[in-house]
Write a structure and sequence with these properties.
A 4-stranded antiparallel beta sheet has the order 1-2-3-4, with helices on one face. The two termini are about 20 Å apart. It has 2 helices and 4 strands; from the N terminus they run E-E-E-E-H-H. With about 100 residues, it is α+β, with helices and mostly antiparallel strands. The mean pLDDT is about 90.
Length: about 100
């Protein structure tokens, strides 16, 4: 799960404002207006699982590419990323689950 900020027109308050855009994998699953607080959740559950399978199957290839490009960076970041991955995946699953419940 990642959160990006974007300047959008809110469908609730009809104002141009900063919005927090939440991604589950490669899909936008939630948009929150920082002006009025309105939240829009998008059900991405149907697209998410096939995308997750593709991300998992391509991980070894992506790691090898990073290893060739910058072995030092990979060696220094891999332990921390490996330990934090379960939490990051749990947050991503929770985001998808919420989008399914509200979508």
């Amino acid at each position: 799960m990642s959160v990006e900020e974007s300047f959008l027109r809110c469908t609730a308050c009809e104002q141009d404002a900063e919005h927090e855009v939440v991604y589950a994998g490669r899909f936008v699953s939630q948009i929150r207006c920082t002006g009025c607080g309105a939240v829009t959740r998008l059900d991405v559950s149907e697209e998410y699982l096939p995308d997750l399978r593709q991300r998992i199957s391509s991980k070894p290839r992506r790691l090898m590419r990073r290893l060739r490009r910058d072995p030092g960076e990979l060696a220094s970041s891999l332990p921390e990323r490996t330990l934090s991955k379960p939490l990051r995946m749990a947050q991503e699953f929770r985001t998808v689950w919420r989008s399914r419940q509200d979508g």
